[in-house]
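Worked problem 6 (solution included).
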Amino acid sequence: MDTRLLRYFVAVAEERHFGRAAARLHIAQPPLSQQIKQLEETLDTQLLIRTTRKVELTNAGELLLRRGRILLAELDQLSRDVRTVGQGALGVLRLGSTGSATSRIMPKLIEASSQQMPGLQLNVQGEMLTPQMVEGLVEGRLDLAILRPPVRGTEVDYMLLDRDHLAVALPLGHPLAAHDELDLEQLAGEKFICYPPSSAVNNIIMDSCRRVGFAPQIAQVASETSTLLTFVAAGLGIGLLPTTHYLPHSTRITFRPLRNAPAVDLAIAWKAGNESALVRNFLELCTLLNPLERLDPDANPAD
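Solution. The predicted structure is:
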C-alpha cells in the first residue's frame, strides 16, 4: 500500500470532507478525490460513502482509519529514530511508563542513563496502563515498559524496581481525614474514584476490598492519576493510589496511610527473548540502581 495514499485517506476520513482535507494537505480537491479512488481500486474495497454534503466511512474505511493512524505514527517515529541515530546517537529506546513512575523512578533512570549511556535517546510514553504497555511490548511498539505487575503469560519478562503500598486520597475536609491512619474497612460505603478495570492497581484495590467484605461504589473512572486526583479534589469521591503519589498535589486533597496496605509493585518489563544490546544494557543499569531479584510472572503482589 502506498503510504502517500494512506495519508490522503486518513486526512479525508478525519475531516469527513474532501475540501477541508485538500486544504489540510495543500493539494487541489480533484486530484485528492482521484487518489482516494485509486486506493479503493487497489484494495478492491469501498472505503468512503460520498454524498453532496459530507463523507461517511464504510466498515472497511473505519478499520483502515484506525490501523492506518497507528501505521503512520510508527513510520513517522521510525523516521525520527533513524535520523537521531544517523546524527550520532548511541541508539533509541522506546519506553512506556505508568504515570506513577514519573515522580520517583523515572528521574533516577534518566539521570543514570545520561551518565552511563551517553548518546542514548529515551522516547518516553507516559500515563500508560499495564495492558497497553504489555501489548506495545509484544507487538514491538515499545522496547521497555515501567509498569505495575502482575503480568500474565510468557511473552513478557519483568524485574522489580520498587514496592509501594496503597494510600487514601481524600477531599479536604472529609470526615475520615480526622484519623491519622485508616483501615480498609472504614472505606466501605464511600464513593471511589478508580482506575479502569484493566489497570493492575485497580485489580489489587478491588481484590483487597472484597477480602475485607465490601465492593467499592465506583463514582468515576480515570485512566490518569492526575485526572483521578482532580476528581478527588472536586469532592466526587475518594481514591486509593500507590504511595509514589503520596504528595501534596493539591491543597484540596489530603492523604492518609492505610494500615496493612497491600503492596503495589513497580517493575521494568521487556518482550521475552529480546536480545537487543541496548535493552540488556539498560536493564543492567536498572539492576545496579535496584539490585532486586526477578519476580515470578505468576506471583500476585497483593497476596
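Discussion: The CA atoms of residues 41 and 219 lie 49 Å apart.
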